[in-house]
Structure prediction request, 193 residues.
Amino acid sequence: RSSSFSVPSFFSFYFQFVKYFFSNNAIIGVEMAYTQFEAIKLNTASHHNVLDGLIIREVCWKYPGAGIEIGTRGCDQDESDFNSIVFSQIGPKVHGHAIKIHSGIASTAIVSNKIDANGWPCELGSVVMISGNKNGIYSNIVSQGDGVTSVFDIRTRHATSGQENVFNGNIIATKANVGIHVPDSSAKTTAVC
Prediction:
């Protein structure tokens, strides 16, 4: 006896449902503190979301993570693209990265945020870590965090990650070792004062 149900079609339907249901959202004016893990995590093809006017502080106190994390670690097919993080305050005391964009993620806009890079319980390795491609990082202010290794850190896991990112008009007011770290393997990354 044959059945019309097939596993691939079910997963295709489920994936399309998840893409629609968890996309096109706006999270505005929310304050988050004292979380064990990330304050906000967008993954599994969550796209076209706007994070606006958030206050994120004292997060990831149990396990190092990120204030805002987009994408899935080790998954280059996540498709959580075209998200925006704007006019938000992140930090102090984010035990991990303030913002983390995984490889496979494209076209995230990180604009006009204020980031206090004082980490807790230890200083951050980098404040904003980007492995994705074609992301725009504009007019952010990063302060404090004297023990920070790098403020903006491009990571290239492989030849197609950490490419074509644009930094423009950011203010770095820390004693970090490096303002913007761009490895040799990152192609077409632009940094403008």
